[in-house]
Amino acid sequence: MTDVPAAKPLGPLAGLVVVDMSQMLAAPLSAMLLADFGATVIKVEPPQGDSSRRAGWTIDGTSAWWRLFGRNKYSVTLDLKQAKARAVMLRLLDDADVLIENMRPGKLEQLGLGPEVLHARNPGLVLLRVTGWGQTGPYKDKPAFGTQAEAMSGFAHGNGYPDSPPTLPTFPLADTVTGYLGAYAVMTALWHRDHSAEKRGQVVDLSLFESLFGFLGPQAAIFDRLGLVYEREGNRSPVSVPRGIYHTRDDRWVAISCATEPVVQRAFTAMGRPELFRDPRYSTRAARRERIDEVDALMQEWIGRHDLADVMEKFGAADATVAPVNTIREILQDEHFIARGLVTDAPAADSAPVKMHDVFPRLSETPGSVRWSGRPLGADNDLWLGQKLGLSRAEIDELRRDQAI
Amino acid sequence: MTDVPAAKPLGPLAGLVVVDMSQMLAAPLSAMLLADFGATVIKVEPPQGDSSRRAGWTIDGTSAWWRLFGRNKYSVTLDLKQAKARAVMLRLLDDADVLIENMRPGKLEQLGLGPEVLHARNPGLVLLRVTGWGQTGPYKDKPAFGTQAEAMSGFAHGNGYPDSPPTLPTFPLADTVTGYLGAYAVMTALWHRDHSAEKRGQVVDLSLFESLFGFLGPQAAIFDRLGLVYEREGNRSPVSVPRGIYHTRDDRWVAISCATEPVVQRAFTAMGRPELFRDPRYSTRAARRERIDEVDALMQEWIGRHDLADVMEKFGAADATVAPVNTIREILQDEHFIARGLVTDAPAADSAPVKMHDVFPRLSETPGSVRWSGRPLGADNDLWLGQKLGLSRAEIDELRRDQAI
Question: Which residue ranges make up each domain of chain A?
Answer without folding.
Answer: 17-215+339-401, 243-326
